Predict the 3D structure of the following.
Amino acid sequence: MYEEYWGLKEKPFENTPDPRFIYYSHQHQEALSRLLYVVRERKGAAFLSGEYGSGKTLLSRVLLEKLQEENQCQTVFIFNPRLSSLEFIREIVYQLEGGRESSLNKIDLFHNLNKILLSNHEAGKHSVVIIDEAQAIADADIFEELRLLLNFQLNNLFLLSIVLIGQPELIQKVINLPQLRQRIAVNFHLRALDEEGTKQYIQHRLKVAEARHQIFDSGSQKEIYLNSFGIPRQINNICDLALLAGYGSGVNTINKETILQVSEDLEGLYPRAKESLEGEREI
């Protein structure tokens, strides 16, 4: 709607997990490096936490894309983990078998899974399970299944790596499961961006959208940081609405006043924003 007015090839602030738009802050780069380390070195598990809107899902898509490019892994991606323990195992086997339905019971599913993992290993491929929104796991038995899955290993490596991605409330759940926690090789907590990071984030996404001139002035970028608390999803919401408002007003540049206006419109949508300013947590 406003792309032509601002000279943009596409909308730069969509809240969709498009890997092309990822901004590699130092912490996002570090988080990705740790996740890749666990997979490439065939460790047991990795844990990534972060506040809602901090970029976890986007980072999971980047991880998945990189693993597909390297073609050294067979990857299962579970984006809705609100399953029973049986459904959970069945979904993993289903994806590893290329979408073939199975009516096997749990014992037979585990036998079948063992064969798949060994076959992948012999073919030079590592098996990986990525679980996004893991804080939504409702069945406590699934955590026990995750622990049991990590028993699939040879003398010197795991046949399966698990990547858990979730909001901060998942941290305590993992802490309360020492047998699972002990198998987590690395963990990382995504924090909100600082003011400079917020400015770089905005400029990066505009560059990907092929902006031809400076759209947000310095005052507006500072105001975006103050009103978004440095949380990428909130930055996107504010910037997208600001571009629409600027288009409607016929201005050439987004200024502080425009950000104050749209932030007032969005006020009340971010009750948990300040929590994202917490530092990295260890589990």
Observations:
- The chain has a mean pLDDT of 91.
- The beta strands are 45-50, 73-78, 126-131, 160-166, 184-190.
- The chain has two domains: 26-190, 193-277.
